[in-house]
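haha ok so turns out i had the wrong file open the whole time. this is the CORRECT one, sorry everyone. sequence first:
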Amino acid sequence: SQFISNISPTHSGGEIVRLYVGYRELKNLSKPLTVVLSEIFGDVVVPNIVALMFSIYNVLILRNHIFIIPAAASAYNIVAWSLIVLKKKFLRKAVLKILSKLNVHVEETPLPNGKDVLVKNLLLSILFSLVKFVLMGFSVFLAYISVSERISLLNSLVAYSLAMALGIVPLPAGIGGIEAGLSLIRPGVGVIMWRIISYYMATLLMFPFALTLIHRKIVI
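then structure:
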């Protein structure tokens, strides 16, 4: 699914593939839909809250109005995905419609309604997303220092959050938006290096596995 993500519009994609795989394993859509929504919600909220706060500070305090763009993008991401999680029944109907067009029969299993379960899933998702956020920020730091460009750990975290906010552009893996977000903090070769490692190399490494899975599906 990560390979599909990397070639899908915006920096996060391929969720329909993850839902399909989850359905094939569990024979129902409710659990995989809950898991995917929780993961996406955490991955969106954590970096975008950082991006929103930093952008508002730059616009209001430092009078750097270029940050109006990431502020608007991060606010949109937070609101949109929050509404999707709250109204996941509508998303489920959309997923069912897509799967039906792919000739995939999905049993009508109810979504878990317990608020305690939902809150627990979201809290765990946010916790793991915080860990992922720190690790990805550190990867930005390592990419910059690998080409002898200085950047602090704090700035690398902010740069990553801005990249995630602007990665909503409708291009594969958010190309253009990701680079713009990083460049707002520290433009240079480090931006190119991080994208080469985190996107191009990762996509090339996953390509043979994707071909293998497709081949197995055709054979079966």
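Residues 59 and 65 are 5 Å apart (CA to CA).
again sry for the mixup
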